[in-house]
């Protein structure tokens, strides 16, 4: 099979650059932005030098989906940062769609559920199936924002801080190409709702409906500090709000998040 944009993405004028193998689709997208590219996808089924948050490696063996979408925007970095929530909604929507179709084809009765984890993951059954990395750089036409979305389609890493899973592990047999087509269309929907940050209130509401761990004990390791409490909500800037034992709402801008029994161990 070959990669192709979904019908909505194609009608929206998105470009598509496909690599047989790439070091990092985010790196390729930012390089293209410096040359004047706009509104484009960069995809491969084999990524050899991808990165997640805190420079953690994100390697995609052949058959997985490494994808980055480039948008050039007239917004500031703080507003651009909220675009990551739209990306989480887009890939979780695409996963739900292709999984339902795969289950129907196989004669099954139920498909996995996919939830978003603050700040930039998607989980299935408590295990990580998607990692995302948002990067931005000022270019001649505005702020180039790249949402990198890595999805475990046929294989999942075993040496990650959070246990990982693939669609194949879940009994869902789909191709990276089919998932990408659904993702590109879902991106059009949620990017339109986001509307250069003006629609983040709507994105926030939709994201919270799919949020992992909402209302549950949580521990966040941020630098050398550990903050514990109850995951209360996210605010209008996308920060996680944690209600501490003292009843104080603590805003979290970044950190490694652990829920449930892991949280009770102090995020170790």
Distance between the termini: 43 Å
How many beta-strand runs?
14
CATH class of the largest domain: Alpha Beta
Return the string of H and E elements: HEHEEEEHHEEEEHHEEEEEH
What is the CATH topology of the largest domain?
BirA Bifunctional Protein, domain 2
- Approximately how much helix is present in the residues? 25-40%
Most strands sheet: 7 strands, mixed
**How big a fraction of the residues is strand?**
25-35%
Regions with pLDDT < 50 over 5+ consecutive residues? none
Strand order of the largest sheet: 1-2-5-9-8-7-6
Query: Rounded to an integer, what's the Rg over CA atoms?
Result: 18 Å
Q: Average pLDDT across residues?
A: 91
In CATH, the architecture of the largest domain is 2-Layer Sandwich
The CATH homologous superfamily of the largest domain is termed Bira Bifunctional Protein, Domain 2
**Number of helical elements:** 7
Basic shape: globular
SSE-based structural type:
alpha+beta
The domain count comes to 2
Can you walk through the features of this model?
By secondary structure, this protein is of the alpha+beta class. It folds into 2 domains: 7-209, 2-Layer Sandwich (BirA Bifunctional Protein, domain 2), CATH 3.30.930; 217-264, SH3 type barrels (Roll), CATH 2.30.30. It contains 7 helices and 14 strands. The protein has helices spanning 7-11, 25-34, 77-81, 83-106, 176-194, 200-209, 260-264, and strands spanning 15-19, 40-44, 47-51, 57-60, 65-73, 115-117, 121-124, 127-139, 142-151, 217-222, 225-234, 240-243, 249-252, 256-259. Helix 4 (83-106) packs antiparallel against helix 5 and helix 4 (83-106) packs across helix 6 (200-209). The mean pLDDT is 91.
